[in-house]
């Protein structure tokens, strides 16, 4: 999506993801599109203008990149990095200073604490301190980098995170581990069949470790047993 004003910026046609790259985070809580982005983050249908009228944007994934961050991020001490806590760039208690080109003051925007809290609750944020090392064998040698390549690359990382935390209480929200487990179940077909049995055993153990209720278990098992290509 382009940051410039105009019509059809929210129209993604058959794509499932709306990407906003290298943006100012203020667009999420004070920009002209904040209400639309909130609604999309809640997976609600949104009406937007196009050149010939109005269309309804279906539920979409939002993928946003920025040099700023909404949340405070903490890392375990003992790493080679001197700094282990990175405070959010956004201060809800004061006026947020926006600057125009060349560093000139443009306008002051008050960030309401409740609005900022609501925005933070709608996003999962990853803070990257350095570029990760990616083994050459993880990159495709021909054609383009596909969604399947991305899934295969992060699959073991998701397992490592789910191993690290022992109890349900260690997660700020149950969605943080439910999204991960659902991804393992839904995309197991993309992994080497030799490891399917071990992955399923690991997933079943998570049901007990994280104290999932029967409804959650049923939904995850349905994903795990589904082999349709449309669900890949």
Written overview of the protein:
The protein has 232 residues and is α+β, with helices and mostly antiparallel strands. The protein has 2 domains: 1-131, no CATH class; 136-231, no CATH class. It has 6 helices and 8 strands, in the order βαβββββββααααα. The protein has helices at residues 34-41, 113-120, 147-164, 174-186, 196-209, 214-225, and strands spanning 17-20, 46-50, 53-57, 61-64, 73-74, 85-86, 95-99, 105-110. The strands form 4 sheets. A two-stranded parallel ribbon has the order 1-4. Strands 2-3 form a two-stranded antiparallel sheet. Helix 3 crosses helix 4.
SSE blueprint:
Blueprint lengths: L16 E4 L13 H8 L4 E5 L2 E5 L3 E4 L8 E2 L10 E2 L8 E5 L5 E6 L2 H8 L26 H18 L9 H13 L9 H14 L4 H12 L7
Parallel strand pairs: 1-4
Antiparallel strand pairs: 2-3, 5-6, 7-8
Helix pairs in contact: 3-4, 4-6
